[in-house]
């Protein structure tokens, strides 16, 4: 909780003194995002790994601090305005890590950041190829590391499709991208499940699907 307060003080200062065009400090903002995501993903805050009694005790006393800092990260991202493009693709991995935390409200609040990144790159270069490549690479790594689940896949699909379909220029390419990532996620989750299967044919079939 002490660290959370300190990070929020840091965020206030960034917004007040280091956001406008003349004083923008890329490294400071980068440090903030990496620090906040590291705080959110630390082991001692992953409540689903605790017993129900311990989880209830922590929630009762402190609330879910991951949700608090996650909403703050989201707001800080949107505050960046025209500076956002400077954080693509570097911030794709950390934001992905955050959205994969198994907390539904946090996921719903932060998955839309991906659409914002797509939009941002599209306005700058008329495509979102850099973002797409980065999220596919990082997703592979994260799912292999044990993160991601069926609920995440469903939310990712639903939230991003809704956003893409409302956008004049991203409707078609956005939908193609979302379907591609969801299909990849399906294959990666299958592969992760079957990795310990005794049946070599099943493992081989899953590997072929991923490839």
UniProtKB/TrEMBL annotation:
One Pfam family linked to the record: TPR_DOCK
InterPro entries the record matches: DOCK, TPR_DOCK
Superkingdom as given in the UniProt entry: Eukaryota
Any one of the GO BP annotations: cell migration
Membrane-spanning ranges: none
Molecular function per GO: guanyl-nucleotide exchange factor activity; small GTPase binding
Domain Dedicator of cytokinesis TPR repeats region: 1-159
GO annotations of cellular component type: cytoplasm; plasma membrane
Protein name: DOCK1 protein
Species: Corythaixoides concolor (Grey go-away-bird)
């Amino acid at each position: 909780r002490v660290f959370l307060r300190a990070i929020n003080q840091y965020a206030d200062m960034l917004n007040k003194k280091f956001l406008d065009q003349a004083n923008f400090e890329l490294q400071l903002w980068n440090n903030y995002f990496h620090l906040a995501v590291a705080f959110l993903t630390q082991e001692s805050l992953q409540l689903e790994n605790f017993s129900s009694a311990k989880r209830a005790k922590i929630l009762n006393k402190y609330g879910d601090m991951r949700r608090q800092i996650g909403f703050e990260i989201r707001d800080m991202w949107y505050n960046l305005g025209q500076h956002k493009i400077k954080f693509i693709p570097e911030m794709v991995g950390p934001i992905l890590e955050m959205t994969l935390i198994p907390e539904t409200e946090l996921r719903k609040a932060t998955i839309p950041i991906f659409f914002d990144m797509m939009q941002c790159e599209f306005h700058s270069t008329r495509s979102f190829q850099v973002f797409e490549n980065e999220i596919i690479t990082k997703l592979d790594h994260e799912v292999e590391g044990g993160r991601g689940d069926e609920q995440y896949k469903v939310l990712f699909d639903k939230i991003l499709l809704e956003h893409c379909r409302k956008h004049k220029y991203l409707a078609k390419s956005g939908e193609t991208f979302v379907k591609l990532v969801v299909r990849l996620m399906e294959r990666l989750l299958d592969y992760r499940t079957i990795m310990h299967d005794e049946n070599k044919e099943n493992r081989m079939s899953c590997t072929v699907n991923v490839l």
